[in-house]
Amino acid sequence: MASPDLSQSTPIALGDRVVHCETNTLLDPNLYALSPSEEAFFKAATGIEDDEALKTHVIMVQEKAYKVAPYPCIYVFNFLRTVITRNMVYEDILKIGRERKDAIFLDIGCCFSVDSRKAAADGFPACNIVASDLKQEFLELSHALFNTSKDTYPVGAFPLRPRPDLSALTSLNPLRGHCSVINASSFFHLFNEERQLHAARALAGLLSSEPGSLICGIHLGAQEAGVWTDNVAGGKFDLFCHSPKSWESDVG
Exposure of 41 by Cβ count < 10 A (0-12 exposed, 13-18 middle, 19+ buried)? Predict the structure, then answer.
């Protein structure tokens, strides 16, 4: 694959580094695809039952998001994946939402918060969910994608005992020791090895001490720890990938 022409690129922040993405990259609607379960979820969540109408709606939101930040996950429609349902602890998450009073679910680096939206659809109280992303525009586009508003889907947009007022959050610091569930998918590999450890420790500090509280997520990894390089949609991405051994050694 040819190297991207950095003279025609725009620098964007991705985790703790800057990557260059070509400014003239065209989106490819042929990459749009939903599994049967994802299709059912998005039709129910958006109220759009027609296949072509749903596709048109999603592509409209994708185009807006790609102007905000041309991330690979936007280009290839990975933001539509309900990744959390593939996690072995998903049923435990839903059980926490049902049985633990005022259990807080933090969806960190959530993009359009599809994972936590899916958990809410499956029974986790939406009012106890906090969706957080570096790009505030993605949180706003989440409402566009799902045809909701802050009034119709009142999650914490983003401080102290007793339990914090989620509707008034301006930072995550007040959540220290309060989160029953932290979902951090496609998150750690955005940072170098040192900052991945720092991020893991920071998230651990947000976790409730109540038994059963958990942090989960799915990330890029490798058999041998090291930097993985790829070119996607004209952008060159260098990501540090842990191996199972190095992750256990660093994070424990």
Answer: buried
